Amino acid sequence: MTDTISIEHAQSDRAYEIDSGFINAVLAAAEDGARDDLIALFEPLHAADIADVLEQVSATEREAIVALWGDEVDGEVFAEMDEDISVELMENLSDDIIGEAMRDLDTDDVVDLIEDMEEPQKERVLGSLEEADRAAVQQSLSYPEETAGRLMQRELVMAPTHWRVGDAIDEMRKSDDLPERFYDVVIVDPRLKPVGKVPLSSLMSHPRDTALTEIMDEEFRTIPVGQSQEDVAYAFNQYNMVSAPVVDEQDRLVGVITMDDAMEVLEEEAEEDIMLLAGVGDETLHDSTWNTTKLRFPWLAVNLVTSILASLVIAQFSSTIEAIVALAILMPIVASMGGNAGTQTLTVAVRALATKDLTPSNAWRVIRREMFVGLLNGCIFAVIIGIVGVIWFGTPMLGVVLGLAMIVNLLVAGLAGISVPIVLDKLGVDPALASSAFVTTVTDVVGFFVFLGLAGALLL
Amino acid sequence: MTDTISIEHAQSDRAYEIDSGFINAVLAAAEDGARDDLIALFEPLHAADIADVLEQVSATEREAIVALWGDEVDGEVFAEMDEDISVELMENLSDDIIGEAMRDLDTDDVVDLIEDMEEPQKERVLGSLEEADRAAVQQSLSYPEETAGRLMQRELVMAPTHWRVGDAIDEMRKSDDLPERFYDVVIVDPRLKPVGKVPLSSLMSHPRDTALTEIMDEEFRTIPVGQSQEDVAYAFNQYNMVSAPVVDEQDRLVGVITMDDAMEVLEEEAEEDIMLLAGVGDETLHDSTWNTTKLRFPWLAVNLVTSILASLVIAQFSSTIEAIVALAILMPIVASMGGNAGTQTLTVAVRALATKDLTPSNAWRVIRREMFVGLLNGCIFAVIIGIVGVIWFGTPMLGVVLGLAMIVNLLVAGLAGISVPIVLDKLGVDPALASSAFVTTVTDVVGFFVFLGLAGALLL
């Protein structure tokens, strides 16, 4: 452990957190222009931690630090940073420094970095690469975004079917352009079609004269180059893969995806679901106030429409409310309980769809369960809120109205919560995106309508 | 690719999804008692896919399938299944079949399986293990749940500091109890303290007489056995690690954690955040109606209290509402917008805390940003809703009241949304758990209070 100075490794809650003392030291070095101090501070740190430091300071501080760091800049740091920030930082660096930094990176990292850049800057970075790397990066960029083609790296180790363990080891010792890190040797036929792979651990544990085809993995999956990154991540997670060969339309080997890339996607996708469910787009902590405001606006606008709809429902009952003002006091309870119950159900549904646990095979059973759960909790809360209503306002019938409205709305919440995501998924819309707006509209409208309607019928 | 029969590998949306035709074939085989058919259907499938099939059928069907499968049962399938289900299934299997199934598994998978079992069943499974494995499993179980000790496997490859590449390769070829899959050789000093590790890919690419210490990884991290699994997963993700040695309090090597385990935890933790934010506990699609109802009840109960609090606020203004019934119609809008804006902010905050992007170093900057965002969106929506209010009810002052209440509530939503999670985190409470209840209470109470209060002051 080389970095005990700056990052706590204790078993505390704060393990791996960069402490603010360290950040202050970096800021002080930047302010004083103390380049040697800065380099010494960063030297023991992993690129990912340096990236975090840069993400946590303000934009101006960040620029000052990177400018001072100069030609010691480590390309990996850009790869580990939030893309917006690295794009912004790289704009101010000289061609030489960028070229130097890019040389540290595998092609998949370079692709990841430049795919979000504007054309002129993209050209500039591409121009700084060596010819072979540039061709590989351009090839990757020719695949659609968020597909296997963008995730894969071109650096890989392959062997023909007739090789033995000894051949493979000798060949690797001789080669001077092996990938920095690899886990399998991909076995290919003469047409470059992968027929299997041998994990390095098997290669290690067998005698030199063992045929590679004899020790190939039983489990072997290739990834089509056009597969969505979401499916790639799912496959890595589902089948515990560490690396997988990527093939083109003719089944020829074109690259390799490794688990670290898949892990990143898996996290991104879960993150996206969380954010979308809360009506937050693709935002980060580093976005400006104005950008954040813009990103949050659409969801709030949708919610405004939704709540105006609910108000229109209430407006239909204004004479009932005028007659019994207690209704105005109590009506948000039913709607709010429905909204919460609906959100519970839809969250479970959205995740189950994402992990492919909710399928046509079990959809009906799950829908039935959700309706029963809604009904059961509806009955329980009907009794509680009924009693509260009676005690508070002394009108037994008001308690009955509250209770009945609660049962109906929680049942509807369960039904809407499960069926809206399923239908959206069937229509090809990401269920995390719009489910929440639909479901709360339903529970608000039904909540107010049933409560006020029943009150009008039974209390007036 | 051995399983093109049953799992679609196309580049479609449905890649890796088990089709319902396949599930029907399995169910038909189980119903007819056609054991050979069942075995033939499962044979080409990955254990994780068989686990998914079993998860998607009903409990009765599941039991019938596993009973028919009999001594062909694959232990990996239990490891891949939701724990509740595997525990339930294993209860009905004979000791012989369990013993056979457990022999397929690494110790970390056995630990994962039995840690949730009741004492008698746990004893039974432990009894079915071979002596060495039992000792290893019991050792792991002696560490607290959700720590590195539970995640690690005991099977690993280590080498003393004086070995050369050739020694390591020869030794591995001779050994007959290598782990099924490994990625690094851990270099240990005579006291068993890890001093570095050599990735297999480096071992492959260097001549036999290279000293291992010469080609050790620069980046080298050990994981303390008591570290929380959340931090372990963070470290794997942050530092792109594939495997990491685990050490005890005396810094001695006690096991190894591999990336697939870390990936699982990472997914679990993101999942947990999503679920907690929506007020759903540790539930799965397979829970019974009754269990699901119980799991969802607490959150709904909290919400009931919250909404009764909001109603109490409204009740203070019943004479105002009696005078102007339009207020009852419009009041849910302000509260609902506040709730949504607050949820947006707190979701971003909860995730940023989980990924250690939100720290004391940038907390103030982020808080300031959130307040500005709230204020900005508040002003925009104040204008919109103000106009709506005026057009709808023809009272300009009503528009002013709506607008002012919107500004205040969205500002408060931003402030509460960012500060509640930060404070909970400081207090050592999982911010995903309780933030949402606190924040919506604040936005409801403030929303109703400001709107009705202003209306009382300005309109009456």
Automatic annotation (TrEMBL), chains A, B:
SUPFAM superfamilies xref list: CBS-domain pair (SSF54631), MgtE membrane domain-like (SSF161093), MgtE N-terminal domain-like (SSF158791)
Domain CBS, chain residue ranges per copy: 216-272
CDD domains xref list: CBS_pair_Mg_transporter
GO molecular function terms noted in the UniProt entry: magnesium ion transmembrane transporter activity; metal ion binding
Principal cellular location given in the protein's record: membrane
A single GO cellular-component term on record: plasma membrane
InterPro entries, per the entry: CBS_dom, CBS_dom_sf, Mg_transptr_MgtE_intracell_dom, MgtE_N_sf, MgtE_transporter, SLC41_membr_dom, SLC41_membr_dom_sf
Keywords: CBS domain, Cell membrane, Magnesium, Membrane, Metal-binding, Transmembrane, Transmembrane helix, Transport
Gene3D superfamilies from the UniProt entry: CBS-domain (3.10.580.10), MgtE N-terminal domain-like (1.25.60.10), SLC41 divalent cation transporters, integral membrane domain (1.10.357.20)
This protein's record includes keyword Metal-binding: yes
Membrane topology according to the record: Multi-pass membrane protein
Subcellular location: Cell membrane; Membrane
Annotated TM spans: 297-317, 323-350, 371-394, 400-424, 436-459
Entry annotated with the keyword Cell membrane: yes
Subunit structure: Homodimer.
Main function: Acts as a magnesium transporter.
Protein family (similarity comment): Belongs to the SLC41A transporter family.
Protein name stated in the entry: Magnesium transporter MgtE
Species assigned in the record: Paramylibacter kogurei
